[in-house]
Specification:
The protein has about 270 residues and is of the alpha/beta class. The chain contains nine helices and twelve strands. It has a domain of about 150 residues: Rossmann fold (3-Layer(aba) Sandwich), CATH 3.40.50.300. Bound molecules: adenosine-5'-triphosphate and magnesium ion (MG). This is Ectoine/hydroxyectoine ABC transporter ATP-binding protein EhuA.
């Protein structure tokens, strides 16, 4: 279960814990703006954790840190027991080299608000490209797995389409299949339905519900779809001003939040 965790100073050895993701005292600043302020939280394997909070509270920044699209100013991030942005050297921690980062990041897949499919490649190849070129999978195996994943997202008959021939909802389902094709341990989802026409949202959320309920993948999800969050989450983390101000089971957070800022936020979005 996710929750707050005690801050520990980086000392060289990644803490031996069961968590899949661990943020320890993570601070991220953009100029004078402290976006994450000594943030601690953990996500256990197989759990579905949802981040909620006001616009600008740092939710996307957390996911971007996990994708190593940006680096923390202070603190450490651990993924499956390995430091993400640090390496151990002479009993201490130093910034990790690109090879180390690439290895640890293989555990993580992300689906963005904008689907970012390769427009010049057919659907099947959009999904097989990274498994073949990054994981070294044979084309036959990658094709077979991609077809299975397209069935999972309800697009088994669209292997030969180009992205521009699909609706936004279909493109987003391809993007979900593409992320899963890399066999990540954790799937990051950042407002994946917010760029879609309203009538396409339900289909994408149904696919994600299905994945949440039928696979053991860990999910870290940012969404404004509160009913969806309630359905799939084991834990909801409420962020404000760079910190987790409240966390717990969705039944608790959505019905009897303890923090006044959580109450205000939920009354504005529900
Ligand atoms: N590359 C950047 N350069 C400067 N400031 C940034 C950068 N990325 C994010 N920020 C700032 O960090 C803060 C947190 O942004 P972030 O995108 O993480 O918020 P968010 O919680 O995802 O918001 P939203 O709900 O609107 O998506 C904002 O104040 C934003 O302006
Ligand atoms: Mg965001």
């Amino acid at each position: 279960m996710a929750g707050t965790a005690a801050t520990t100073a980086p000392t060289g050895t990644a803490p031996a814990t069961g968590e899949l993701i661990r943020f320890d005292g993570v601070t991220k600043r953009f100029g004078a703006n402290t976006v994450l302020d000594s943030l601690d939280f953990t996500v256990d394997p197989g759990k579905h954790v949802t981040l909620i909070g006001p616009s600008g509270s740092g939710k996307t920044t957390i996911l971007r840190l996990l994708m190593t699209l940006t680096r923390p100013d202070e603190g450490t991030i651990t993924v499956d027991g390995q430091y993400l942005c640090h390496e151990e050297k002479n009993g201490g921690l130093v910034p990790a080299g690109e090879k180390h980062v690439r290895e640890v990041r293989k555990n993580i897949g992300m689906v963005f608000q904008q689907f970012n499919l390769f427009p010049n490649m057919k659907v099947l190849r959009n999904i097989t490209e990274a498994p073949v070129h990054v994981l070294g999978m044979s084309q036959d195996e990658a094709d077979e797995r991609a077809r299975g994943l397209l069935d999972l997202v309800g697009l088994g008959d669209r292997c030969d389409a180009y992205p521009s021939q699909l609706s936004g909802g279909q493109q987003q389902r391809v993007a979900i299949a593409r992320a899963l094709a890399m066999r990540p341990k954790v799937l990051l989802l950042d407002e994946v339905t917010s760029a879609l026409d309203p009538e396409l949202v339900a289909g994408v959320l149904d696919v994600l519900r299905d994945i949440a309920h039928t696979t053991d993948i860990t999910m870290l999800c940012v969404t404004h779809e509160m009913n969806f969050a309630r359905d799939i989450s084991d834990c909801v983390l409420m962020f404000d001003e760079g910190k987790v101000i409240e966390s717990g089971h969705p039944d608790k957070i959505f019905t009897e939040p303890e923090n006044e800022r959580t109450r205000d936020f939920l009354s504005a979005v529900l």
